[in-house]
Amino acid sequence: MSPSMGAYHADEEEEDHQFHKGVKHLCEKGITEVPKKYILPVLERPNAGKDDGIFSNNDHNLMLPVIDFAQLQGSNRVQALHSLSKACEEYGFFQLINHGISSEVTSRMVQEGRKFFELPFEERSKYMSKDMFSPARYGTSFNQNKDRVFCWRDFLKLGCHPLSENLPFWPSSPSELREAAVNYSEQTKFLYMMLVEATLESLGLVGNTKSGNENESYLKEFEDGSQIIVVNCYPSCPEPDLTLGMPSHSDYGFLTLLLQDELVKGLQIQHRGRWVTVEPIPNSFVVNVGDHLEIFSNGRYKSVLHRVLVNPSQSRISIASLHSLPFSCAIRPSPKLINDANRKRYKDTDFASFMEYITACEHKNKNFLESRKLDLIGK
Ligand SMILES: O=C(O)CCC(=O)C(=O)O
């Protein structure tokens, strides 16, 4: 190799190293165009297929089904459970209003999350780690160890269960982040447990007609389940048509509670073969079915593909609270939902297999879930 070739590779490596520091860092250095590292192949760009009507970008906004949590917990529960069930079957998503978490708790979480990304890079970088199980992890893109093309997102992931073991490792700056995140994680966990109970009831697995012990043992496993809070930061992007904040993916867990930016849209879900933009509703959570719930419900509830667009003039923050069963627990179709007419459609799995899978390959679309499907043809 000639000395100049060596220098060329060293330059490329140095440039690649820069991208691993995150999009915020890149923007702080001042850019007017999207670097090659973030440019998606034409068919994966936000407007691909727009002209032939297959996908839509800005022209199709979607009001997700709305579930009123107050009704779910009140005298209208039966009707609300029916709406929840239909939303999980047809959209895999719904917006939860009247959820009981105060706007002070949610806005403090957003505010402290935003402040974290405003810290000098040296402070943020203390939490950079390749360890997927790290209790606090600052990173960029979707899976920066595997992604060939990077996406326009930085994140802070906080492990929340058990809180006492994770908390000492969370960022100590900004000074109020820990307190805001503790409140937020406790309140979203409580809300999640109420939603789990409703979800299991809508599937006919717990409820008034079951014994107290039966209901309790079901719910105990969920209570001990995993929770990760992800603060997503999408800086404004000079060429938003060339890249994505997050590529098309489904969530691995049971349910995700997402606090969307109330002012800046960006979340798109795949619905009836089109990409549609979710209209934010102030003071609501976007709730979505994850892969584990699709498996647990034996395919009745759908873990739906979604992605995030970026914006030319405004940065965007979202906070996802991802919940599932304990890391060690087997994820399988509930035996009570399987019979001759509804055969088992998914192999048993667990969180460790998911981690192994994403560590070994680029996570794209629903490929983990696809790998768990049983071939029922001719059986
Ligand atoms: O930022 C958003 O609206 C969506 C985030 C998301 O899809 C995720 O955290 O998995």
TrEMBL record:
Fe2OG dioxygenase domain location: 224-325
Record flagged with keyword Phosphoprotein: no
Keywords: Iron, Metal-binding, Oxidoreductase, Vitamin C
The keyword Oxidoreductase is assigned to this record: yes
UniProt xrefs under InterPro entries: DIOX_N, IPNS-like_FE2OG_OXY, IPNS-like_sf, Oxoglu/Fe-dep_dioxygenase_dom, Plant_2OG-oxidoreductases
Highest taxon of the lineage: Eukaryota
Annotated Pfam families: 2OG-FeII_Oxy, DIOX_N
Gene3D superfamilies for the chain: B-lactam Antibiotic, Isopenicillin N Synthase, Chain (2.60.120.330)
Entry similarity comment: Belongs to the iron/ascorbate-dependent oxidoreductase family.
Protein name: Fe2OG dioxygenase domain-containing protein
Species of the source: Hevea brasiliensis (Para rubber tree)
